[in-house]
UniProtKB/TrEMBL annotation:
Name under which the protein is recorded: peptidoglycan lytic exotransglycosylase
Organism of this sequence: Enterobacter hormaechei
Reactions catalysed: Exolytic cleavage of the (1->4)-beta-glycosidic linkage between N-acetylmuramic acid (MurNAc) and N-acetylglucosamine (GlcNAc) residues in peptidoglycan, from either the reducing or the non-reducing ends of the peptidoglycan chains, with concomitant formation of a 1,6-anhydrobond in the MurNAc residue
Superkingdom, natural source: Bacteria
Keyword annotations from UniProtKB, A to Z: Cell wall biogenesis/degradation, Lyase
Pfam family, one: SLT
EC number(s) reported in the record: 4.2.2.n1
Lineage: Bacteria, Pseudomonadati, Pseudomonadota, Gammaproteobacteria, Enterobacterales
InterPro entries: Lysozyme-like_dom_sf, Transglyc_AS, Transglycosylase_SLT_dom_1
Family under the similarity heading: Belongs to the transglycosylase Slt family.
């Protein structure tokens, strides 16, 4: 996938698997960086200010600017990965799936 180098860089910076990042990109946007959903989710990782904005403000990214910044593929992946990191290393830390 063409976004793998950016995914690897963002994943390394935030401790998130690049494979997870690229899988989310494939499912959420099909790799289309300009996609805007009916619910106003933007870009490769389909970010929404209303969802990710609260957590991303902890990383110096204001929720009101997410829509504008999320149109840039590198920023979208960086912000999406920051949000995944919040979930993976915070709220969802230690959560396992029962078989």
């Amino acid at each position: 996938m063409q976004w793998m180098p950016i995914s690897e860089q963002a994943g390394k910076a935030r401790g998130v698997s690049p494979r997870l990042i690229t899988a989310i990109i494939a499912v959420e946007s099909g790799g289309n960086p300009t996609l805007v959903s009916k619910s106003n989710a933007v870009g490769l990782m389909q970010l929404k200010a209303s969802t990710a904005g609260r957590g991303l403000s902890l990383h110096g990214l204001e929720g009101t600017a997410i829509h504008q910044r999320a149109e840039n593929p590198e920023r979208n992946i960086s912000m999406g990965t920051a949000y995944l990191s919040i979930l993976e290393h915070g709220i969802l830390k230690g959560l396992t799936i029962r078989k």
